[in-house]
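Hey, I'm writing a tutorial for new members on how sequence and structure tokens pair up, and I'd like a real worked example in the thread rather than a made-up one. If someone can provide the structure for the chain below, I'll link this post from the tutorial.
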Amino acid sequence: MNKNDFIGKIYLKLLENFDEKKTKGGKLDKKMSGEIKKSDVALVIGTFIDVLGDSLAKGEIVKLSPLGTFMSIHKKERKARNPKTSEIFTVRAGFVPKLRFGFPFKHLLNFEVPPTDKKGVAAKKGKK
């Protein structure tokens, strides 16, 4: 799935959540076109990526529950080998982004409904 496909899916999901009767078979009803625009969704996604990138560049940790925690980690300089030519070269030190997925999101990937506590928050195994 590319960025445009992702934006389209979010757009349709927003429309479904806004009012399930205003979309028909995954297609936009003409009456709905003036309320939420696909370009608005693209703007939100682009802004999210910009803000996330700026925060990680500053060394901040961004926690988005239930998705996970975004952070930047420092990798040391190291030696690597090109498998095609067997040439050894140095990979310079730098920062790389890292995402540690949250507990509820991991369960969604396995088609499991995460257990929740009385407040509706996903409860981790072993914690009561």
